[in-house]
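Structure first, sequence second, as always.
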């Protein structure tokens, strides 16, 4: 199906190659999911903060928004969209409450618990684009980096996804990315090594 909508911010300080990668990711996502007959969802860059907007009002499509033109942000936000069930995809930002930077150790542990599946998918998507994946603790202010147990949980989840297959949306996107970026099968578990996350 043709790309029906490609939105990217026209102005950026990001190097051209990185912008081009983000644009290619947007094109792949929109080719897979933007048609009204499909999931009617578009991926759009150029935003100061990531956000998910369900269709409604004058917006006739669902919209996954990512930060500026960062490829990693695009892949991470798509991973959250892939994890969210149908009911959550009807809610702004999937109905989640977000604890900002500066979280306590307890809040950080809760963050890591809910981020395992999205970050595992993000790693698969990054591999499908030929990009390096970095675990995000998303808590720079408090100085708490990703824990060893968090990294291990992400690696184990990737292995499960490769063995059992992720959901249809995630599989479709991963394989479409690999095709567009001419990368090998991103759902082959033996290419993921825990040491890559250190």
């Amino acid at each position: 199906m043709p790309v029906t909508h490609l939105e990217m911010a026209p102005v950026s300080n990001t190097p051209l190659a990185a912008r081009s990668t983000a644009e290619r990711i947007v094109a792949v996502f929109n080719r897979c999911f933007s048609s009204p007959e499909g999931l009617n969802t578009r991926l759009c860059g150029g935003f100061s903060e990531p956000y998910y907007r369900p269709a409604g009002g004058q917006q006739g499509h669902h919209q996954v928004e990512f930060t500026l033109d960062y490829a990693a942000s695009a892949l991470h936000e798509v991973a959250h969209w892939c994890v969210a069930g149908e009911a959550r995809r009807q809610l702004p930002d999937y109905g989640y409450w977000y604890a900002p930077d500066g979280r306590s150790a307890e809040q950080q542990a809760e963050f890591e618990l809910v981020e395992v599946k999205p970050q595992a998918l993000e790693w698969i998507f990054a591999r499908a684009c030929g990009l390096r994946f970095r675990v995000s603790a998303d808590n720079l202010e408090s100085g708490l980096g990703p824990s060893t147990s968090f990294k291990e949980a992400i690696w184990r989840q990737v292995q499960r996804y490769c063995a059992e297959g992720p959901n249809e949306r995630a599989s479709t996107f991963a394989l479409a990315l690999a095709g567009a970026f001419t990368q090998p099968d991103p759902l082959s578990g033996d290419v993921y090594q825990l040491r890559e996350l250190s």
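Margin note: Confidence is low (pLDDT under 50) at residues 1-14.
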